[in-house]
Records
---
Amino acid sequence: MLQERIPDLAKYVEPDRVRREVYTDPEIFELEMQRIHERVWIYCGHESQVPKAGDYYTVQIGRQPLLMVRGSDGKINVLYNRCPHRGNMMCGDRSGNTGEFFRCSYHAWTFKHDGKLRSIPMMESGYAGTRYGKDNPDCSMKKAARVENYRGFVFASLAADGPSLKEFLGKAIVAFDDMCDRAPKGEVEVVPNCFRVIQHSNWKIFLENQLDALHPSVVHQSTGRAAHDIEKKIENKTGKAPLSYHMLSAFATVTIDKWDNFQTLNYPYGHCILTGYMGLRPTDPDTQAYDKIMIKAYGKKRFEEIVAVNIHHVLIYPGLSVQSPLQQLRAVRPLGVDRTLTEIWHFRLKGAPEPIYRRSLAYYNLVNSPATLINADDLENFWKCHQGLASDGGDWVSFGRHFGHDIEKNGAVETAPNCGTSEAPMRGQMKAWAEYMRG
Ligand code: FES
Ligand SMILES: [Fe+2]
């Protein structure tokens, strides 16, 4: 019916602007879930969230409740969180251990970790001569159509066909390589819980903000200034302020013109990368100790390559925002046209000294957590944007900054020199959106 009402969805997206309904129309939202979120590769979680056989973690993909479960064979399965008998949700808790098998709380059908039906109470007498039983696949828990694991990060796609995970990620795969390579043991492990924030705004508003290099010096300036004042005071008193202050004060010292010196790289499927900003090569004793362990693990040459990767942010459209040098990611779970859940996770570098983890934790708490003013300032703007877009005050959202200066190279779009605050990432995301929505 949406197709009848809106015969050509592509008309909603022009190269440098987008109709406001794209953010506010509940039917467009339903179609987005169908054509984007329930088709493409979506991040489920990290394998270390389910270390033992029977461990499960629930996850929402589009409108679908799923669960990620570790089998006794060590394999991770992604299943719909639904009993095939009468539809009961299989796991009501967010996470846990299901034991040797799933047992539905309603009529005690049981299922193996890969979702296959294991038993039904008095199956022979109850179901003799019916179509129900172990041979009928409709009696097993349904699996996600495709599941892939890249360096411990588990993704699922609810569509049987489409690009492989690696093809889909393309250059954005660097998010996971950069994170894992920085670990002396080459892998990360999740810190067992995350912050969950419900934003009262459309999911795309959050994603568009992630590589919006202009907003930090405006939105986060007041927080940055306050941190800068304290940082200076501590420095004057003790000779050196903790690095954590710098994480905040940078929002005041990196001004708009400086942000223009950075660069965004925009790829097919709407993924994009912001380079620069957090080179993060301090020379304090903690970093020196870490460097030593890394050099021992990788050799000097490889170590230099690893720490030279100059990435601030990788956005994997439509559901993941990764800050790899600080081992954090935010997973985006749309709940409704004007409600979006974000899960904010961070990770430990396996084999790295504790202070390096503390640094990641400080960034997590100071910049990304719901407790920080940085996050609060963003959230307020997201909500206000959504309110404005729901009004009749105008029909279009503009993405015109540095429009016409994009450099197309090998299927990707690079922003030209001194165009770091370009709205190219939003243009790239909406281009991908329009392609997906065409079906
Ligand atoms: S609904 Fe699950 S066993 Fe009946
Ligand atoms: Fe922000």
Note: Residues 83, 85-86, 88, 104, 106-107, 109 surround FE2/S2 (inorganic) cluster (ligand 1) (CB under 6 Å).
---
Amino acid sequence: MNDPRPQFGIRLAYVARQLPRLAWYAGHEIVLRRLAADARRRSGKSAPAQSSVPMPSQRRIYADMLALLRQDVANVEAGIYPLPDDHDGPLRTRLHRSQLFFADLPEIHRRRQRGGVRDVLSEETRGRRPDYYLQNFHFQSGGWMTDDSADRYDTQVEVLFKGTANAMRRQALPQLFEVFAGRDQRSLRLIDLGCGTGRFLTCVKQAWPRLTSLGLDLSEAYIQHARRQLRRWSRLHLVVANAEAIPASDHSVDAVTSIFMVHELPPPVRQGVIRECARVLKPGGRLILLDSLQSGDEPAYDGLLERFPQNYHEPYYRSYLKEDFPAIARHFGLVHRRNVTTFVSKIMVFDKPAT
Ligand SMILES: C[S@@+](CC[C@H](N)C(=O)[O-])C[C@H]1O[C@@H](n2cnc3c(N)ncnc32)[C@H](O)[C@@H]1O
């Protein structure tokens, strides 16, 4: 019989690391809800109308969060990745990010009220990025364009997902493990599209420290943030670039990943990005898209998905909910392997045939 003690040690260490983190972000969420209720009371507005589409119960949400965390620890026990280190920074950094997060809430509220989604467009930014990109995604100040936005982003996302954003990102790693296991990681290349502040690349490097990895993003500020976040790792490159024109030659990459990006792209851009992925992947290479659930994936969540773009400026989310990714991928020669859903996210796995 296997000795259960090491397993117990892993679980204990996991809980010791994750519990304070979950409490930290869940605490932010509670404060956020209170502030929203106060703002509604002051303005005499009632709570948002109930959707006619099903909403998940709190019980279902917590059960799915628990299933995600159990899967996370099971992946560690299976040796797919080490005990995760979320690198949220020391208390001073976390407090600074929280302060930025809360300080932006009144601006977000005002922008939501007046439909201010183009505040990021200025003489300085106009023409420097694709037009769709120059919007205040999430209604946040600076859109994707400023240092404060980059410093605020991880807190914002973790609060949205009740502290499980990194755990959801890590669920893409078993899909990489499937194609990387038993191979010399130094000979492999991975590209992460729309890498943002570098959170997923942190997870990747913890699992494969010597894997040559490239993170690209259209935001100069987010790439600068990612450079600071990831400076401990070698064989890692971060560039400001467009996922529609990946700076890599044809058939040169073993895996392409993209986390929480495709829902932000207009449909023609989504197609252009997947075409690029198919171009740069080696035969036998793998594409992994991790993003929100789509309509019908988990019917209990459909109402939540429908409501999301009302609170967060997400202009292309509704089209994302119905997008047929396997059909787009097929068009560019990729084979859809599987979807894996976990809590509110979905992992779509595609392979380029080995020929
Ligand atoms: C919601 S964030 C996701 C960031 C990160 N992957 C994560 O796990 O949180 C979307 C990111 O996609 C980037 N982005 C959007 N369109 C892009 C494009 N065409 N090329 C490269 N990056 C893009 C944005 O700058 C932003 O950092």
Note: The CA atoms of residues 80 and 174 lie 6 Å apart.
---
Amino acid sequence: MMNDEAELPEHVRRNRVHWDALAAEYVGPGERAWARNEPAWGKWGVPESKLHVLPEDIAGKDVIEFGCGTAYVSAWLARRGARVVGIDNSAAQLATARRLQREHGLELTLIHGNAEHAPYPDASFDLAISEFGACLYADPYRWVPEAARILRPGGELIFPTNSALLTLCQPEEDGLAASDRLLRPAFEMYRIEWPGDMCVEFHLSHGDWLRLLRRSGFEVEDMIEVQAPEAGTTRYTYVTLQWARQWPSEEIWKARRRRQ
Ligand SMILES: C[S@@+](CC[C@H](N)C(=O)[O-])C[C@H]1O[C@@H](n2cnc3c(N)ncnc32)[C@H](O)[C@@H]1O
């Protein structure tokens, strides 16, 4: 496993420091999400019954969550009968996940590591999922082929992430919300570092996601553009309800590994 700090790519090392430092802020939200029966997605908490993110029948399936953080998505899937592995780059986030796993009496396998190199043989899983996890902070040109490698033919990849449009409209200044102005070029969108922030994010245009997924062996089945609910609330300051009612602040990609 790629856990020797010196061997980790620079963005993974930086994101490890960032997420270890931020983990305390994710304890409360993680506890609330673990306590939910019905999954609720993203910064607006849109219910599963509205978005239909998860496959209908997941019981008995092998699932891996890429960048599980406090592992509430893993918990939702384990409660539906899946065998779940969560891999995360932050030991501090995993400490919360381990405590909540004990408190809720659920069996998850939690691994400290980089999702760009999952310590599993080819074709080990039926579903790979990443909720604002590795899909936002790992290099897509590394983690998408890795997801393809460890998925069985016909297996599914699902990842909710921030929308390309939101990224184009996001001011660099901390705490400022997206406006209706395009603030950066759409072409060659890839690695983004917000000033004064340790973390490194990755964002692709829709065309680049499509080409990468197809080249890696996936067929794209859906891309849900999430609209915030009418009276939605969020703890995040980088997007307002007014914005997210008009434009998608999040997008959920669903792809299937070709059977060949
Ligand atoms: C916004 S959190 C999302 C996770 C979860 N949904 C939550 O809210 O706790 C992002 C997570 O992705 C993890 N992460 C970032 N880069 C990663 C990588 N290369 N491999 C595995 N996990 C990664 C971080 O450590 C962090 O826990």
Note: The longest strand covers residues 151-162.
